[in-house]
């Protein structure tokens, strides 16, 4: 080894060590942030927060199946009792009423601070008369009967005013005092985890805890015919992570093994094989380092994408070894490097377009691929020649090349068939363009059909809150956010009256702003005053003032109270309700006001346009109205629209680059035609095969052009120099096969992002090569096949 | 408890002679023949806390076998609608929906009226012991809760009527408060 070779090797080793150190300290993640927008709008920010931290993302639905009614109910009670002990769960509901009594007591005690009806006019003689006669009237109704015992303490009906606003929502059916499915065959529980939805470790731990406690409960009860089902965002997140982890390992192994076998067949030398893997490993490592440094977190899917990249990055060393074999590195640099360099640049144009995506996953894939490819190419160009011995123990692959050249020559007679296929594919795509693409973010989800069905079934039975429609207001601090929520309530109340919405939740129901509470306390009269006014107010009512001593006492107590703070709610279920709706952000506080549809559980939905109109008229732009589902759809629409623009931009960049380099419209057309034909044939083929096309297939189309151009350029170069020697042709075959193996392996993935790219680019790369060969000028045979 | 037992015993004694001439089976089949219809009602609630009873008036209609609507007009409009398994109460722009299968106590309450109106002896006997007194022309049916949970809320229900017509329903609550509803049919034609 020469001194410069040693230096190069040392430098390379140092770089690799540094890279490994970075990777070692990188944060890897397999959560949904892959899909969440990098630069969210205000509405999308709410969506992102809800998906990561919101109550909805922390709900786990649990069903107990098998056994009989009694066993299931008993196990449900046991499970609830066990989970309530654990700090991992904020609430565990199964229909048992415990806990509610405590909350009710709290509401009764603080009713004069909490009830929206508490104003100075409420305690005038007229106000008292009206409120008390209303309460008496209410006794005539079955709805008022439950309030009868409290009447002597609460004759103005503040608890009714408080509870009246609370719609308990739809509650599941019950059997033996615990929730059961509609068919009665399953016991149900609804859990709220302390861990955020984005905390996959926390979710995994919580789910494992549920399973363990259930197994322990069933075991100690001696029941073994029961099963547990869990569903919810947390379960999907942990399953997605497990799937990605497992597949990344498995697919990398398959792809690496395939490529190594291919290379060994081509090289028949372990030394060359080992040398050939240097640029690839350098590239793969550099890709992860770049992503880690630029994004902070490396997505599991990005690592999985490395599987495909290995297949392409290895091409450069294949060209180097198989093309420089006879002529030596210097000649290779002169003859082939410009073509390879142009190929690398077109690939960079293609992957580079992804860098600008607002879809963080795509941006990472772009950065990873560019860094990986450029590093692999540079290492091949500058380091490999130094590291490789002067004479390589390579076998001559020219015979394979000659065979290929002959085959290409014979096949070129069938060019028209390829053109016809491309035309037919174009026609098919044109006719079917309306139903080619799936316009739904869920196609990118790893949730399996079976899991989705379980989730739907549990959701139908438990009817957990879904918070689809939200109004959001903001404030600089907690107090101003609560005041903003109180103002928002004034805009929302008319919507309830108008029947546009059924109601709404608000944190100010249990935690009014300090200002409002202080005003309510100030509006309470003294005991003496109240006694005097009551005497007058009750004159014509069938209730004698001496029965209301409890009322006067409670008012006196309330006058001395200080306003409730968030800490006052600790230990009640109300704290949870407030915390889920009052959220601290880096810049101030936000209040969420989920809207309920007017028809309650009848399934009648809110008309978002009508609500938006009314709020726009009266809300003066302070209220943000959000339809979560529409936001998710819009998010995917944005991604898709952006992917279309970026793909076109990437394509334009490739075309410009080629035009500038080739300087001939004819040659440009010669390079592009086979690539575009490959794209349409692959997409038509996927459509015919029943594949649901989405955003990542679109990206795959761009990558066919970016990757396929490498092969087309060799044919173009050959056309210009009037020869494509057998070694070159054979090297292209090997390079193409490794690329196809790399991308093709991704097609085996059940992760839709990876699968789509694999199933598009794998066949696309082969087709690009074959079509380039078919459309190449007909003087390929320098080897005498002509 | 012993008081209730005694009351039950007394009622049983009272009911016995009538059973010979006019029994629950006959009453039930007569009531079951009801085609439904509309009636006005006056409901008086006697509440210990108040000096005077609270009076509510309105209309009710029954469509066999399980649709019942009670429309209170005074003092405050309120609509109580019972349809199969669902009880809805609409009052002051608020709507409360209760699924009865989740609320056995409410179901028992509802069944006492609906079961009587429909002559559904099975539904009535699910939660109550039945005692009949009087004659075909003037009968009194007493329902005593057999479920402890219901007995904790309700001492007894007394329904009186003439042939297939129900004239009054009285609820005596466990705390001693009671309500009496008198019913006057409105001729449909």
Largest sheet descriptor of chain B: 11 strands, antiparallel
- What is the name of the CATH architecture of chain B? Clam
Low-confidence stretches of chain B: 13-20
What class do helices, strands and sheet pairing of chain A give? alpha+beta
For the record, the count of structural domains of chain B works out to 1
Radius of gyration of chain B: 16 Å
The fraction of residues in strands of chain A falls at 5-15%
Gap between N and C termini of chain B: 48 Å
Query: Regarding CATH, which class of chain B?
Result: Mainly Beta
Instruction: Characterize the main sheet of chain A.
Output: 5 strands, antiparallel
What are the secondary-structure elements of chain B, in order, as H or E?
HHEEEEEEHHEEHEEE
Shape of chain A: elongated
Task: Tell me the structural class of chain B.
Answer: alpha+beta
List how many beta strands of chain B DSSP finds: 11
Mean pLDDT of chain B: 80
How many E strands of chain A? 13
Principal-axes geometry of chain B comes out as: globular
Question: What is the number of helical segments of chain B per DSSP (H or I, 4+ residues)?
Answer: 5
Task: Report how far apart the termini of chain A are.
Answer: 44 Å
CATH homologous superfamily designation of chain B? Lipoprotein localisation LolA/LolB/LppX
The proportion of residues forming helix of chain B, as a percent range, comes to 25-40%
